[in-house]
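Researcher: Before we compare anything, I want clean individual predictions. No alignment, no superposition, just each chain on its own. First chain goes here; please echo the sequence and then give the structure tokens.
Model: Echoing the first chain and its structure:
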Amino acid sequence: MEAGVDLLEVQKFLGHHSILTTARHTHLTDQTRHHALDRINGLMDGFSISWGQVK
């Protein structure tokens, strides 16, 4: 996943019937977690919220 492989593809490769099984065994490194936070913050910076209205 850290190389960009989709979780559903990992599920198929491992032969799990449930995506929850795959997710339970998947752990991200601190570097991946930090990169994800940077991307999420970048997306959120594009929003402006004013008294319940998203702009």
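Researcher: Okay. Second chain, same rules.
Model: Second chain and its structure:
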Amino acid sequence: MTGFRFNSLFSRLALVLLSSFLLLALMLVWFSRQLDNNFQDEVTQRLHFSLSEHIVHEGPLFKGDEPDPVAVEKAFHNMMILGKGFEFYLLSPTGKVLNYSAPKEKIQRFTLPMTAIHEALSGQARLPLRGPDPRSGDRNKIFSVAPVVMDERLQGYLYIIINGEIYDSLASEVEASGWLPLAMLMLISGALFLLLTTLGLFAWLTRPLSRLSGAISQLQRQGFHAPALQLDSRAPAREIQQLEQAFNTLSQRLQKQYKKVKSVDEMRRELLAHVSHDLRTPLASLQGYLETWMMQHRQGQQPDPTYIDIAHQNAGKIHKMVDQLMELARLESDQVPMQMESVGIAELVQDVLQKYRPAAEAKQVLLDLHPKDPGLQVVADIEKLERVFTNLVDNALRHCQAGDTITVRFVAASDALEVSVSDSGIGIPASDLPHIFDAHYKAANSIRGDSAHSGLGLAITKRLLALHRSQIEVSSQVQQGTEFRFQLQWA
């Protein structure tokens, strides 16, 4: 994993997680305190809920309509012996405090709201139930209450605060003694352990994404020379492994496309250099003969008509070179339409050989086809396939001498028709064989004569066969001939 950065995925997850855990810890502390207080209050209130009733039954607390000070003092004294945390109050039916077991200066409310008291006496109260604390203006505490009835007439209520001021003081001392900090420390330690464990899990999950981000940054800095991302077999999820694999596949594809574009660009620059050199000769000859013809014409001389013939021949050479260049550029664009149909290949080759027969007879070269079976049908673009045989036969004828033979042969295989175009001409040196399909490559013993051959014919042939999903192969020996082989699918 790369260095910690605030804007990274892991750092943001860690920040959110830390904030969430802090908030959760505070909420847990608060809720645990509330639950603990409620639990203790409920247990204590259930334990002492009938305390007021027991005291009331021990003896009358009123004399007439007024509290009996002696009886009240005696009852309060006896109960204080049982528990110093209790606080006793004698209330009127309307909630007015008539008597109490506390110094007068500590009483802040002399009239109490009766809602909680009535709820407790209804028998349907849900504990813990808290009532008003006379020693505070707004505090509520658990209590016990019982009505004081004499002669079937309600005289008032005995109201007991169960955990009084003394209890609060003792609880504060116990809390300050270290129990609460210890509990808090245990809670925070558990939360911290869970936080660190989760952060470790996030780090494990985000590490492959960080590696992938680093690989992308490296690709941006180094371009297509950046090394491939090493796949992590321990990646936490199959989706992350697929993402890494997809990145590597995309990177490799981009590298291949970049190399292909670079290679094509270099080839085009080289081709342009060669073609400009080849065009220079016929252009110079064309210009020279035309200028000579024009000069003779201006001087009143009768121009030699052969000058026009030679100029026309050179113009034809230039035209053929330009056509081949345009054809190769179109084939390399990968936007060539194909009209695939059933083709009688023997008849097609017969037409091509017939076209070259006059030139072959002039050089005393024999053209042959075997077998001459009109039933041989292949799937091909007839125009492009004719161009393939034209280029191969033309190339073979230029490298043959008197007495040589050019043979087109078909061999039927189960899945395709094997085609070979062979000659018994001068052959190709072994060092030149790997390059003869490169655009404008010139073999060491190449024969071009004075015709317009730019060296593009075999490159065009290879591309045309590639459009037919076929690969061309070549074998040759010097002074023994050359053979080109490829396959075509049956119709």
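Researcher: What stands out in the second chain?
Model: Residues 238-332 form a domain with the Helix Hairpins fold (CATH 1.10.287.130). Additionally, The radius of gyration is 54 Å.
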